[in-house]
Give the backbone structure.
Amino acid sequence: MTYVKSHLENFIENLYTKISITSPEQLDIELIARRLNIEVGYSHKKSKCAELDGIMMIRLNENLSKAEQWQEFAHEVCHLLRHSGNQTELPFPFVQLQEWQANTFALHFCIPTFMLEKADLPFDRRLAINKAAKLFNVEHAFAEERLALWEIQMMGAMYEKSSSFF
C-alpha cells in the first residue's frame, strides 16, 4: 500500500496549486496573502486575524523573526479558512480544539507534504531538520516537529505495506 495523504494534506496541496504555489521558494507571506485576498498588517501587538464585511485580515507581530511570522501567518490562515465565529464567544474546549487544529494546519501549511516529498533531505535526522528549517523558512523546533510527524506518517504507510504481506 502506498502513502495516502490526509484530508488536511490534500486541502493544503489543492489550495497551493489553485494559487500557483508549487515550490518552497514561493512560500512567502505577501505573495500568498495577495493570492488568497488576505490583507496583512504588522504591529507590536499579538498576531491575530479577523474577517469584517467579507475582508480577511491578519495582523502579525512585527517583533517576531521572519520564521515566527511565517508560522503565525499559517496559524491565522487556518482560522480564516477553516473556522468561523469569534473565539471569545466559544466554550473553552472548543477554543482549545480550534487552536490545536490551527497549530496542526500551520505545520502542514509551512512545510507542505507535496513539497516535503520532493525535498532531498539528508538521512541524518539533525541535518534533515536543519535543511528543512532553512528550505521552508521555519524555526528549528518547528521543522523538528513537522519532520517527526512526517516520520510517523511514513512509518504508518510502511507498516501498512508490510502487514499486507501476511
